[in-house]
Protein 1
Amino acid sequence: MKIIAVIPARYEASRFPGKLMQLLGEKTVIATTYENVVETKLFDEVFVATDSEIIFNEVRSIGGNAMMTSQHETGSDRIAEAVSTIDCDIVINVQGDEPFLKTEPLKQLIEVFKNDVEEKISLASLKIKLKDQEEIENSNNVKVITDREGFALYFSRSVIPYPRETAIKAEYFKHIGVYAFRKNALLNFANLPMSPLEIAEKIECIRYLEYGMKIKMIETDFVGVGIDVPEDLEKAREILKKQDSSPKFT
């Protein structure tokens, strides 16, 4: 089973343009993430897929693998273009703005497919329990609900489940945008039109659900910082100050 990692990266992020080229210590966010993914030694190959010459040149400047793609609405569509000519079985999508992701959750995602002998699972992803009410209500945090076997039922920026019955304390989980795909599921995804739900929520994995694909969710307990807005970058820099070197996957 050949497993590769692809980091989709665009410069013009809607909420924080140029965020991947911001500095974390002495390195940019995208350089930090790329080097940390390589250092996990979990993957046969690691690539950055981008439509930005700035990001492409940054990755190449540190000796990394980068490929140019056309413009895409979602990271999955970008990765699908990138891997269409690459021989592989499983593709891990690591977000370029998640520099503090740990190795163990990546291993868990890979294990999902090693154990799925009947190949019923199209993709796997991560979730982490939310406890702070402000974080639960934050629309930047995509929430996910699952069935009893851990398969995703729906993703939303709204609070799901809605706590109408207050006698029972509901659990809330944040979706962490790290995906592991079967290559064929990823390529099929890219040929499917966006649905109204995906467009309304701006959550690409809803497209998988609407077309009947199974998404296995793995609960993790790591606390990282996804850099979505400038305030997140400051949080990441504060974390880095407490470390002796660049943030590492551990």
Protein 2
Amino acid sequence: MPQQTDSPMYDVVLVGGGIMSATLGTLLAELEPTWSIALYENLNQAGQESSDPWNNAGTGHAALCELNYAPQNADGTVDPSKAIGINEQYHVTRQFWSHLVNNGVLQDPKTFINPLPHMSFVWGDDHADYLKARYEAMSPQPLFQTMEHTEDPETIRGWAPLLIDGRHDGKRLAASRFAGGTDVDFGSLTRQLTTHLTDHGVDVKFGHKVTGLSRGSDGRWDLSVKSKAAGSSFTARARFVFIGAGGGALHLLQASGISEAKGFGGFPVSGQFLRCTNEEIINQHHAKVYGQASVGAPPMSVPHLDTRFVDGRRSLMFGPYAGFSTNFLKTGSFLDLPLSVRTHNLLPMLNVAKDNLGLVKYLVSEVAKTREKKIDTMRDFFPKAEGSDWELITAGQRVQVMKKDPKKGGILQFGTEVVSAADGSIAGLLGASPGASTAAPIMLGLLERCFPAKIGGWEAKLREIVPSYGRKLNDDPTLLDEVTQATDAALQLN
């Protein structure tokens, strides 16, 4: 490790203590054990912002139940390609975690992952027709071959009784189910990974905020770091910088001055959830159930009634209820949005605003919802819901990517995007869903992009970490079965 001087020097600096930095740090520690690495996190613990389980409600994203990943075409057919891609990515993540469990990096898998069926549930003829078309498009794919589908209310009741009990409106119902889904506590997982990094020589510093960065004359990056406890600042130097600071990544990418960050903006969306306080109700539901998004709603606002396992305790939540805040982080500043506006991203942002008036209208209506209106919305899923059994909690911030588009001038992107310099010396992650569940493949892609001269020498180790590395499981059912059986066993999901 480098000596702690006024300007400590590292091979790699990770900015942010969430699941992305923890994943990248863990990979690099295995691939290059002699490299010096530092991680700076503004908060006093890892995984407390976007990776916190109550700030990251869509845990275990695998495109098994999230309908927005399988859009319907104009002719009524459904395109499964995006769902296949996301599910492939989640299998990579599962293999990465399995490797860490098998090698003692992660301890009891139940502390961060638990088996949980994933369901899609809709009502009304149009939505039921869509869900049937989705099932017909996805179930022939090897990745989704065990998916079930029904329009029988009693079968649905057997899967998730809260959806059916008290429902008397006579509407056509439909549900799809994947019994082999999971629920993930990314806060617990992130903290376990950062503890491992600390134990293996990574200089993990909490209460340290990176306030700016610039390129030195020798090509290294100079990061301005403020220590909360000491009340002082210092400069850390690095050959490579990863900015995994959630909503805070945009400001630092802009500060870097790299041309690849020009034209990017951020659109913050906040959220709230109803969390059940009645153990009797909690124990009647064992599934992650997603429905259809409201007209004008962003994909991240798809309503869902979810069983959760947080810090070893079973919970139940419903939401989200979207809101608007100009903060880019839950712990950020209301000036985050206005201070992110630059001459190079102003036009794309204005075009996004012009083309997404429906989203703005939706957010205004969501903010105006009373608590009773929120309970009424939940009753579409859970007809017998009683407001006294639920508490309203504030979730985290999501910053959706806005970027230049040659046709529209600017587009709003509901996904994640890695932005990196041409020389691979710095990279940052922008965006949200599917986010944490695809951390491993996203970071593997970052390694390929930023370390092209190294990736060939790393390939054997990467195949040890992720046996399917470089291959598609959906194209190889035999490999899919082998990988699934191995990860289920390692993660105790059998």
Protein 3
Amino acid sequence: MTDGVPAGVPAARTAVITGASRGIGRALAVGLAAHGVSVGLVARDRARLDDAVAECRSHGVAAVGITADVTDRADVAEAVRALAGSLDRIDLLVNNAGVIESAEAPFLDTDVEDSWRSVEVNVRGPLLVTHAVLPVMLAGGGGRVVNLNSGLGYRSAEIYTGYAISKGALARFTGLLDLQYRSRGVRAFDLAPGHVETEMTTSMPMHAGRTEWTAPSDVVDLVAAIGDGVLDDLGGRFFRAGTDTPESLLALRDEILARDARTLRLPTAGPDDPLR
């Protein structure tokens, strides 16, 4: 046993990716398939989902697509039952499905219902999907959960209040999940994909005129390394594609652990701070 984790939790043979019909989710599904991982894709758009599944199968692995709304408990339960039956096991879960507010504005200039939709999809979705997948993962001896996060989950900003709230909550969930289930062979990770050129990011005014984008392959490389177990010692922590690589994270491993860095926490004023 290493750092409280049972030794020998194998590299992922199967993965489930939500929001997998387009953008980062599709890139992850296809990239993991190219890595030799059988994949289960969850999304709402049947036509796009079928196309993504076909591309995954072109890499010679099993791939299955299930339509579901990740905020609907019954949908999620049925989707996970179907995926577990088709894939036999679930070694890696990537909670990628997410949305952002339609208005890039301060809180009072936004619709609370629009902000709440971000919280529903970005928090309730991962909670429901993980709650359904985790028993399957544990029955298989363990696995890994990746929550697609954002720098806005860790720092304050003047815009996208609901989105930032949702990603902060997701970061806390990642830490709790890793702590609660690491002794049973499950690790959880926060991964910000950087600025990948997708339908969502290109619609955001803050990215107008951007010419430098994070390569989808950078996100795939990190998720594949997580699935392989390369980064298990850094479970519960925050990575950022396009800045971090598996190699750079391993080089920083000892310092990250010594400082208990890359986690969501309340900084204190020093050793005399009563909140220590």
Protein 4
Amino acid sequence: MPALILLALVGFAAQLVDGSLGMAYGVTSSTLLLAIGTNPAAASATVHLSEIGTTLVSGISHWKFGNVDWKVVLRVGVPGAIGSFLGATVLSRLATDAAAPLMSTVLLALGVYILVRFTLFGLRKDRLHLPLRKRFLAPLGLVAGFVDATGGGGWGPVGTPALLASGRLEPRKVIGSIDTSEFLVALAASLGFLLTLGSQGIDFVWVAALLIGGIAAAPLAAWLVRHLPPRILGSAVGGIIVLTNTRTLVRSDAVGLKGTPAEGLILGALALVWIAAIAWSVRAYRAERAVEREAAQALTTDLAELDDETAAPVATPTA
């Protein structure tokens, strides 16, 4: 029972992050399942089965709050479903010894990307409302879907930054559209795993625990997307993913550093980098907010002066 409660809390936290940041449900959940020794293909299958429910509720919640662009959902989601089905088939055919380091490497790369992206650059907003092209969305969906299935997560870490970097869709609609289209990706990946693995290694009680936690968080995350600072959240989540998957890799037979001083040094150095990244993000966020407040105050002052000039009486010439 404690393990199921923990899984439900992980599902809640992962969906809270995913729904407000547009990424990290699969990466966070898969990282935990790998850390406790779950078969990589079974871990990815468990996460994607739970995501069928969480992404459905999340999509509906984002739609209710006006965070969804349905053209983007279809243009990126359908190729994403194809890519995720192919990725599930590939991962299911790999031996566990080969799949575990591969999956951790993919997750580590995604974690580094999230950490660097949100710590150093934040969100781009200078090209909002320009049209997104099919020739950009279709390949993006195909690649992101494949990475998502083989890495146990990746739809958001690949898709969300790419759409944000384009600057052509406001951040809340990027996050809402990516979360909504992920339903198609999760459904296709789950079918791929079930056709190749059957139910082997999949604990449906674990699926239910992740699902319950995720469904509980989805409406709250859709509301929070307008209020949480994505820069700080991205740095925090990226650091957790980097630390956990680095630990998995250094302890693998391929690296062979388990229990050595080098393991502690590597993880300690990464922890310091992570703390510094969060501190940097907090400082940058406060600086951005200060600039926004100054701009708002300047605008208010200018408008007040304009109103005073307009309201001033006009002197009439005397005869």
